[in-house]
Amino acid sequence: MTKCPRCGEPMTGGICNNCGFPVTRFKKIAMPVIRNGKQATVGYQPEVWKKWE
Questions:
Q1: Do the strands 39-42 and 15-16 form a parallel or antiparallel pair, or are they unpaired?
Q2: What does the pLDDT read at residue 10?
Q3: Is 6 helix (H, G, I), strand (E, B) or coil?
Q4: 39: helix, strand or coil
Q5: What is the spatial distance between Cα 40 and Cα 23, in angstroms, rounded to a whole number?
Q6: What confidence tens digit (pLDDT) does each residue in 6-36 have?
Q7: Are the C-beta atoms of residues 4 and 21 closer than 8 Å to each other?
Q8: What's the pLDDT band for 1 if we cut at 50, 70, 90?
Q9: Is 43 helix (H, G, I), strand (E, B) or coil?
Q10: Cα distance between residue 11 and residue 24, in whole Å
Q11: Cβ-based burial of 11 (10 A; exposed 0-12, middle 13-18, buried ≥19)
Q12: What is the distance between the alpha carbons of residues 24 and 14, in angstroms, rounded to a whole number?
């Protein structure tokens, strides 16, 4: 079981059972994120990029 970084108590589902401290774990991705303003793709997607203005 994972322990809370704040108080050291056990955690369930990313939230400490004792103090309620949330811990979010992010996964690393091995593909680039390509952004165009508010639009984004993950990985190489030239067919989508052609539609961007």
A1: unpaired
A2: 81
A3: coil
A4: strand
A5: 26
A6: 888 887 777 788 888 887 766 677 888 899 9
A7: yes
A8: low
A9: coil
A10: 12
A11: buried
A12: 6
